[in-house]
Specification:
Length: 212
């Protein structure tokens, strides 16, 4: 049986990184937390064994922290893609055994895997999938599938960005019913139909399958 990881280094203490630290703190594991901003570091100081202010893409810092000693290294700076790429490459070169990196889009995830990431997480996409499962019972999904109805997730088309759901007229123009919107990691159910759509939103939609 594979040994469970006992030590974690988490870089990037935004919403995702802070949530990760909070959940890890409930387990009997060693945690190092790192962020560029002292204010963010201070928010988790009571939950971790050690906290440091610094840049995850700074090779000297990663060497000083002896990053290879941690069972799992997490780079949670999704909004700083270039830093995530550099940090991943450096961590693997220094011998980090398991590097987990946050990405904001599938294309970013593919690049991060190419440069050495052992695991890539797309929190918003994964939240979208979970919401879809929670919204519809598995048995109901089977019934919908047989009836030619599908539930899927997608980013808004360019023509929809800046318009609300009513203005975009998704039901009539695209045959879509929007069940939920995932924005910045937060799930909106029910959907605010007056809120303008953003390019980074993930729409959980229900639609009839096309027939030829």
């Amino acid at each position: 049986m594979k040994n469970m990881p006992h030590s974690f280094a988490v870089f990037g203490l935004g919403r995702f990184g802070t949530s990760l630290v909070s959940h890890l703190a409930q387990a009997d594991v060693e945690i190092l937390a790192v962020d560029r901003e002292m204010a963010r570091v201070n928010t988790v100081v009571d939950q971790v064994d050690r906290c440091v202010t610094g840049d995850a893409s700074d090779e000297a810092l990663l060497k000083k922290l002896d990053i290879a000693q941690f069972d799992v290294v997490v780079f949670a700076m999704g909004e700083e893609f270039e830093s995530s790429v550099m940090a991943t490459m450096i961590a693997k070169e220094l011998g980090a055994p398991h590097v987990v990196v946050k990405a904001l889009a599938p294309r970013q995830a593919a690049i991060l895997r190419r440069v050495g990431a052992d695991q890539v997480v797309l929190p918003e996409v994964e939240i979208g999938a979970k919401v879809a499962q929670q919204l519809v019972d598995p048995n109901v999904l089977d019934v919908l599938d047989r009836a030619g109805v599908t539930i899927s997730e997608q980013h808004p088309d360019e023509a929809w960005v800046g318009k609300n759901i009513i203005e975009a007229d998704l039901r009539n123009r695209a045959g879509l019913n929007v069940l939920a919107v995932v924005r910045n990691g937060a799930v909106q159910v029910p959907v605010d139909v007056d809120q303008p759509l953003q390019a980074s939103d993930i729409l959980i939609t229900l639609a009839a399958s096309k027939t030829e």
